[in-house]
Amino acid sequence: MIAPLQQILLIFIISAYPVVGAAALWHLSPWETLWGVLGGNLVLMFAALWSRKQALRQMNHTADPMAVLGSFEQTLHRLRSISIGWLAINLFLMNWGRVVREACWRLPHGAAYGWMPLDDIIWLTPPVLVWICFWLLQYGLEAVANAGTVVAPGCSGRRFHSMPTCRQYVILQMRTNLYLILLVLMIWVMQRGTSRLADGVGLTSWASLIGLVPVLVVLLFTGKILSMVWSTVSMPEGPLRQRLLAMAQRSGIGFSDVRIWNTHYRIVNGAVIGPMRVARYVILSDALVENLSTSEVEAVFAHELGHGYHRHILWYLTAIFAASLVSSGLGSLLQLQYPQDSHLFDAMTMMAMIFFIVYGISRISRLCEHQADWFAAQRMGEEFSMPTSQIGGNNESLSPSVDRCPLPVEQVVEDGSFLTPWLTAYSAVSASAVSPLERGAKIFSAALRRVVALSGRSPEKPGWMHPSVNQRTQLLARLANSPDAVRRFEAQMRRLRHLIRWGLVIGVMSVMAAGALTPPASPLGVSHKESPVKATPQLQPVRASEVWVTGNALMSRKVIKPKRATAESTWAKDAGSL
User: Fold this and answer.
1) Is the pLDDT of residue 47 over 60?
2) Predicted structure pTM score
3) What's the domain count of the chain?
4) Does residue 93 sit within a domain?
């Protein structure tokens, strides 16, 4: 799968080009630029083809084809990163951005495709086509691994189905891995449409504000959009659905539906999508529901409920918005102080945002994953100690019954954590073998390790947005056995939320300060520090006439110079009317 970081970097590079612009090191013709773009991407495709050939050779002599497939996927991941870097070189150093824009400018205005961001789509096309070719190469290798009679030890117990067709496989990969790019393209198209409508009704001055409406619409209805893009269906009625809905109701978390993600049984995963309750969905993949036990599915579901309970999606969006405001506001203030280095500060602003995306979002996401894990452990601890008549579904008990404190209906929040009074009492004596918190942590840790094993991933390797499985289970064990560890963790989460809030405040203040300190535009080149009378002798109307005639008349290569007296008298008349 494509990491979200790669999609974000690809979108960010394309968005940064109109701001930073090109700094061409090589003066290439349009055809030379085009061949350079195509040549670099062809090299990446040949590298992937050679790596696939080596992987097929290894599969014929190994008892663990899934390990070979995982190594090939890592190679494709690195090649995708190289393709993103090659796109940046093409845009900023090889005039690819200028060549595409000049071609788009030659198209007739007012056509239907005027609503489409054609330049952005053309820039996206080479790397996306390369990624599609990578999936075509991966399909054959995955089909060989899937047909193998020997299953990797890490995937023992998984039910394997026949491979989908190549067309179905590629469509699945595009739906699963290009969703961020699709959402951004939708925003760009809607922004262009609203801008044209604003111009048509005479609201050009409000175009920037009106352009925020599509962004809000797409963000609020992301869950609904992704539920359709990912080909999800509502979970059928049955004991499992009743138990999951009963758990969500007891947790006080609202969402629209529990949906099954149709992945042709290729993906073992779950997610919660959508920041708004009316368009928020909890999705579980078909392979996950098929291969996990009822208690393990409930543990994964509880983890996704934890994301919704703590509003992690809104915190992600707030953090990104705050970082963009801080970077743009501080960059604008620096440009006011050093106007001669405007492009340098634009580049610094973009680099600051890239740093935040790579490291800041990763840090926030990992802490949120730990918090959702802790929520799931507490939820499973409560489910473990509830009477079977209150669980829902077919009243199956999750584990053997234990002695438990009376279970009150209401829940309390201690330092931002999800704890009921009886869980708080047990957390103080968690050395007991029947501690619900400890048992809940074990149930969720077992489910988490099961998901990773079925996916063929390493429990020791962290991801960009997820800690490693070993890190997650070790922290859960500490939280379940130490109230002091819970207080320290909750204090860490409070500091994170305060940091995001302060970042938003600083960003708004810096943008407002930059707007207040920006001098108004001076008409006709008159400096805001000088009066029109003093500025008049410094202007050269003859030079202005030369530029105008040369750039717009296009009647002759010879510069047409009007009489000096006439030009000066005209300028004096204009300056006096200011």
Assistant:
1) yes
2) 0.78
3) 3
4) yes
